[in-house]
Amino acid sequence: MLAIYPGSFDPITLGHLDVIERGAKMFEHVVVAVLYNPDKKAIFPVEKRIEQIRCCTQHLPSVEVDSFVGLTVEYAKLRQANVLLRGLRVLSDFEKELQMAHTNKTLWSGIETVFLATNKEYSFLSSSVVKEIARFGGSVAHLVPENVAKDLHLYYS
Fold it and tell me: Across the strands, what pairs with 6?
């Protein structure tokens, strides 16, 4: 079974990587799908995010990295996937993600959303937190894969 793990991944964090690794154990194939959203000001272009994710998932042969524009449900249909993989950190994530899961179901009845609760050590972690720490010169080596920490250091120096 093919699962899509969609997101902006700007940048990918160890929390994201944890969801990818756990998803790879549950599903035959996982596509990490980087969303191009022209309304969001990303620090890394989509191509760079794809490169970062490929680098830190190379130990997972059943994981593929791709990008898309538009509705996640349409991308899932295109890829013939009927599962969306989503991570949950806190209660507010659940409310937002459940609303999105219901919305996606109205767009395509063939889609299911599988939620993975984050491991507790990543419950506070978000790409926004990582960017803020990096922007002010703090170390993010314990929050993101090594290749991403280097890219963030170069970006903010």
Answer: 33
Active site residue 29: no
Among this protein's residues, is 127 annotated catalytic?
yes
Per the annotation, the verdict on 41 as an active-site residue is: no
Active site residue 89: yes
Beta carbons within 8 Å of 154's beta carbon, 6+ residues apart: none
Q: Which residue has the tokens 């991570």?
A: 87
pLDDT digits (tens, 9 = 90+) for 52-92: 999 999 999 999 999 999 999 999 999 999 999 999 988 77
